Amino acid sequence: MSLDAFLQGFDQTKIKVIAGDIPQGMYELEGSTFKQAGSMTGESIDLSTSLKKMALKDLVKKDQYEPLVGAGVGALLGLRFGLIGAAGGAFLGHFLMKGHPEVSVNCELNDGRTFIAVMTSSTHEKMQAVVPPSVRAGK
Fold it and tell me: Where is pLDDT greater, at 44 or 40?
C-alpha cells in the first residue's frame, strides 16, 4: 500500500459541517451513521432513516497553494526532530493538504433541521449509497 493511498483513505469519511441547525465542525461517516468526530456525546444521526433531502449545492475549489502551506507547516513542526523530521513533516504536510475536489451539500433532516456540509466527492458518493433513492433525488 502506498503512502498516497493510505492518506487518501484517511480523509474519505470526514465531513465538515459549515452551517445549519446541527453543531458545526468535523463529522465522520461510519456506515450510515453520521457522527461528530472526536466526541463521545456529540451529535449522531442515522442517515438511512433521518435524512429527508440531500441536494448537491456546489463544487468547492481549493487554493492551488494549499499543499505548499501544508508542507511548510509540516516542516516547521518536524524541525523539532532535526532535518530528517523537517523533511518528513514537509512530505506529510504536502500529502495531507493535497487538493482533492470537494463538494458542498444541502441536507434536511426529518425533524426539520438543515445543514450545509463540505466533503470530498468520494465521501459524497459513499453518503449517497447509504440513503434511500428518494433522498438522493432531493424530492
Answer: 44
